[in-house]
Amino acid sequence: LALLTGYVQACRALMIAASVLGLPAIFLLITVLPCIRMGHEPGAAKYRRSQLGGILIILLAMCGVVATIWFPVCAHRETTIMSFGYSLYTGWIGSALCLFGGCVIVCCSGDAQTFGENRFYYASGSSSPTHAKSAHV
């Protein structure tokens, strides 16, 4: 087997790092959904998790962008390959969408004070005005 050049190994490492960053980011963002409550946590905790999840998605996208741009540039310089296939284009599109989605999550999640307000939760035996049955929702 021929030894792989440094840029191929670096691009592989970047794509593995992107894959490893994606799993905790998705788990963090799933726990921020309005239908999921974890005990009696304040809205600021969900806000911090959404910000961290968005930042991880942006880091994932940057790893993907660097790997999918660096590989074809170096491969073309080394072997003058002109066609790279659809998986490289898929990597570009996926990285761009992750970058856009991470930026939207970070910029549009609101502020920590209002995160999670104006929600009604069902609680049995309660007659508070925030009760879903008494609010006629």
Automatic annotation (TrEMBL):
Localization per Swiss-Prot or TrEMBL: Cell junction, Tight junction; Cell membrane
Protein name: Claudin-11
InterPro entries from the UniProt entry: Claudin, PMP22/EMP/MP20/Claudin
TM regions (residue ranges): 12-32, 52-71, 91-110
Similarity remark: Belongs to the claudin family.
Domain of life, per lineage: Eukaryota
Pfam family, one: PMP22_Claudin
GO cellular component, one term: plasma membrane
